[in-house]
Recover the amino acids of this structure.
């Protein structure tokens, strides 16, 4: 699986909204407004806070840490949500590879070699059909079935493969 070249972690920091995803287990009760906030921690790890709106209207939050697998510029990270006694448990980490990235860091496509999960993230809550079409091509190039990605409410509904390009 190829990753974005010349990834710059400083430009990636901040809030990202989920536009579409093959949802992960920890998102099973999320119904809308899914977001992730990234910050550089003092220990060199990325601090990750995922949040979403649940059916009853409350927000759910999950803290995680991410670290680079190789050179940070290749965009290959692993993320763990498991913390025991103040230590992050890396054997429980999952792959988080940036496989597509807008040159202006307005959107990102995140996948993993197993292709069981994927996320389309953006600085805004929605992306136009032309951009989503471009992202579909990136996902197809990496052997994803774009019908597996669900658009994230409240602003979009349905499957990514049904978006008109």
């Amino acid at each position: 699986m190829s990753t974005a070249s010349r990834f710059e972690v400083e430009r990636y920091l901040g809030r990202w909204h989920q536009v579409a995803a093959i949802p992960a287990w920890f998102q099973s009760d999320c119904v809308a407004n899914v977001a992730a906030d990234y910050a550089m921690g003092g220990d060199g790890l990325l601090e990750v806070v995922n949040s979403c709106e649940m059916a009853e209207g409350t927000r759910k939050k999950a803290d995680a840490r991410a670290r680079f697998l190789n050179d940070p510029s290749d965009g290959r990270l692993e993320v763990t949500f498991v913390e025991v006694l103040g230590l992050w448990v890396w054997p429980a980490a999952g792959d988080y590879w940036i496989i597509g990235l807008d040159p202006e860091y307005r959107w990102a496509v995140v996948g993993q070699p197993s292709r069981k999960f994927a996320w389309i993230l953006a600085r805004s809550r929605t992306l136009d059909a032309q951009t989503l079409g471009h992202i579909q091509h990136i996902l197809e190039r990496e052997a994803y079935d774009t019908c597996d990605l669900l658009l994230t409410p409240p602003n979009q509904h349905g499957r990514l493969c049904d978006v008109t390009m």
